[in-house]
Amino acid sequence: MIKEKSNILVVAFFLFIFCCNKLYKKDESSIKFRTLNSFDTGINFKNKLTYNTKVNIIEYLYYYNGGGVAIGDINNDGLEDIYFSGNQVSDRLYLNLGDLKFQDITLESGIQTDISWSNGVSFEDVNNDGYLDIYVCKVSPLSPKETHNLLYINNKNMTFTESSSQLGLDFSGFSTHSTFLDYDKDGDLDMYLMNHAIHTVRSYGSSKKRRESDELSGDKFFENRLNEKVKKFVDVTKESNIYNSPLGYGLALTTTDFNNDGWLDLYVGNDFHENDYIYINNKDKTFTESIKKSMSHTSHFTMGVDVADLNQDGKLDVFTTDMMPYDSKIFLKSGGEDLDKISRIKKDLGFEQQFSRNHMQINSGNNTFYDVAIQTNTHATDWSWGVLLQDFDSDGKEDIFISNGIIKRPNDLDYINYLSNVDFTEYNNSRQDLIKKKLIDKMPTLKIPNILFKNNGDLNFEKINTSNSGIPSYSNGAAYADLDLDGDLDIILNNLNSEATILENLTEKPNFISIKLAGNSQYPITKGSRIELYVNGNKLVKENITTRGFQSSSSHNVFFGLGESKKIDSLFVRWPDGHKETKMVKKINQTVTISKGSLSLENEDKDRIIKQNKFQVNYLPIKHQETEYYDYEKERLIPERLSFEGPAVVMADFNNDGFEDFFMGGAKYQRGKVFLSTKNRGFEEVKNLDLQKDNKFEDTDAVAFDIDNDGDLDLYVVSGGNEYKELDKNYMDRIYLNDGLGNFTRLQIPLPRTNGSSVSVSDFNNDDYDDLFVGSRSITGFYGLSPYSFILLNNRDNTLSPVEQQRYGMVTDSKWVDINSDGKEDLILVGDWMPITILIQEDELKFTNKTEKYGLSKTNGLWNVVDVKDLNKDGRIDIIAGNAGTNFKWKPSIKKPVKLYLDDFDGNQQPDPIIFYDFFGKYVPFSSKDKLDKQLPFLKKKFPNYNNFSKINDIKSLTGKGENDILEIKYIYDLESSIFMNVEEGFKKYALPTSAQLSSIEDFKFFKNSNDLIYVGNFSKYVTELGFSRANPGGLLLDLDTKTMNFKHRKNLPLPIYKDYRAILDFDDNQLIFSNNDYIFTLKSNLLK
After folding, report:
1. Per DSSP, which regions of 536-668 are E strands?
2. pTM for this structure?
3. From CA 59, how far away is CA 436, in angstroms rounded?
4. In angstroms, rounded to a whole number, what is the distance separating the alpha carbons of residues 21 and 23?
5. What is the mean pLDDT of residues 750-756?
């Protein structure tokens, strides 16, 4: 009977394997891992949590964060060993026996086995004796009395002596992790200790609380003075300018040289409302915290961090993990982004912008970073802990591994609602314990797989089949090393409530080199060394850094995948003390030891020999200044604020002196200004009384034209702002007559009164008088409905009359041009939720929409700007248009567009704009349940909880109305900024390079007699659910190949990343860059001529 059952089990097992193989056959990957269990490895460590009434997630918010893992060769036998930290179980140390076999040597090595809460762990040689020591972080308040962080000094015989008290590192408090670095280049390792707050009254307040101290939760910095009189580590937190405050919820930590100046800096990732920290080393034993200057936004709940060169440009980038789900059902019932109002309050309290998702911060090379996680589809990996950036398939490009999962999900919105209705004060202690247990049981439990992304180059990351990166689990700490010395990197995981696992790398192996660094007697430190490999003309860059991921530290060897390359041209090392050497490596596919040699000071790399094209960036003390208006308070479901559209700018010779002048429109309560050029190439404002009187208007666009045909240029200024009802007097456009000297007087005639957005000039009836198109953006209070726009004929008596008044769409820009070469000016319009629209002028001043004829009917986007040029000189006019870009949460396509449904869904005589978009393969509503409930009260009864709401997949399941019954549906098919080439059958699209897709393009200009162009962008006024679009303030696209329509060279503009740029004016060798709600920047370069 037993044998029969056994046979059945065997058959069932093979059927299971067959089904799994069949299921995953289509997704075979070049990166393959095999999960090893304790029978394979001898590692039976299990970080098991056991509920008790005193220690649980209600009492300690980081109860389910799990433990760490550290890698290091404790006996210098060439095999790296493993240390696991436990929470309610004792830590364990495993000796690597080779062939992925390990022996538990915890007891005989002297590692303490008492049960105290351990978090992060590091292997470091703190006393420079050539043997790795161990530092373990403890949560002392959850542990037995007198528990503190531990420092195990290696006795060089596979035993350790705990010496934290003797050496000054016996901190007692809420410790998360540590990292060691030689911050002062004195030849020994100092230590940053990252601690974490728990929710107390002291944890809340303004950012000014960073200057307060908290001895249990505040971070610490210790200087190594073992070789000095004190013979211990000394607390220099205050002296080094490190925050020691109750605000810090430190979970992520690493060391790197951000600015490549040869001095190690720090990245600290904080949970909750506190910002992450970037500490730049000032080279004088102090740091300067610079997250605001370095990054325009960061992860909200930063849990893990790693640093590597992700785009192969020789600069080190940063990846941080958060907890945005990728499953639509989990996403719709989980807490996510801050409400816009909360985000605003945090800003007022001095905190920088955060978004609840992973961030991939690309190093721009000018001490700033820009986030491309959404562009690369690496932004949503669910409850993510450690991130490891390494070349797991040895192809020369860094891949991404992310450990995942939490046993109980405290951000489940149904659970949060349930919790908010419980008042513990109503119950006695025993009853409170029962209630806590019930609350914890209410939290959802779900195992999720770890995530692996393969780097295909050019910021293209492919999500690898989950079966190759470990079975679904609750994985926290993660580290990598070549444990079996077979030439690839294996992964080690510390899991909650299940055995720790090793993922054995089974990837077919290209070539590699593994480098072990060795210092010398004068300077033994190797931590923080920078290694550059030159292979087939490419430069590969890595640092010898071990603190990575979450509560963990990885291999002390530096691994380079070489792909198909069979040799290394040269190897460059910059040691932590600043000394530099070039080494030759003759053999590959092995571990080589690079020893520090003569103290030469060679050129750091070949690139520095090349003369760089320099930009000069300055600013003019002329500021556009918005008044704050929060559109979303009146229109709950809109995706962006339409009240931040300026400044309107015009370049023209207003005083006929042969030099270009400019007009800059004002925001509400700011006057428009005219600046005339001076002889020394400066600008001087001309005071205009009528412009001053009209400061209550919001200027959204403007154009210079000669309405009275008197030979000087007048101004047409468009009013907008999204604050007033349609036809309000504050929406009245204005015309200002020029006296020929740059003095302007308002012409009192009736003009359009809409929420205007665009004006363009043309003599479309060929009578030698300038005519106009005036476009409108929206109808205030009715987002999505198309407002009227106007084609205005010059009556030659200082008045204008409409030739056409149509609802063309939500227009943002316009351009007059003769598209069909018939001698008559036609009109190109772009805008939100509308295609690139072609209006062909026919006889008798009639304009006919020929968008479909020209092949542009499915180009609906969020277009900002349009221009025209015959790029390939074939006699046809081509189009270039700036869109929102693809670094955007919405990922529309022809098959899966973003949809905007407009209808009166609740019968209150007002249309409701409901947006659906494709979320990793499933349509979901863009607005949250809370927002939709307020907009459509009947939904609260229809969907009484978030679990019900999470099942919505289309407009009918939400509102009961199918698409065929909806009043109007608008679409977005495309968010790429693109060139549209005019060919015989219509227009053919060519997307601009990836670098130009990373944020919105708001304006561009072609250089004279060239297809080279300059563009600017960034937009930060989307609602928080969409987030900032601030990954590329601007750039140059040079040397267009008109056969392939590829620009051969691309360069980013060195403009501040945290500003929104709206317009470019080209003053020969000097570009004026206008920003919204900020100053005018000037840009000079030999590339701009």
Report:
1. 538-543, 547-548, 552-553, 558-563, 570-574, 580-583, 591-595, 615-623, 649-652, 661-664
2. 0.95
3. 9
4. 5
5. 97
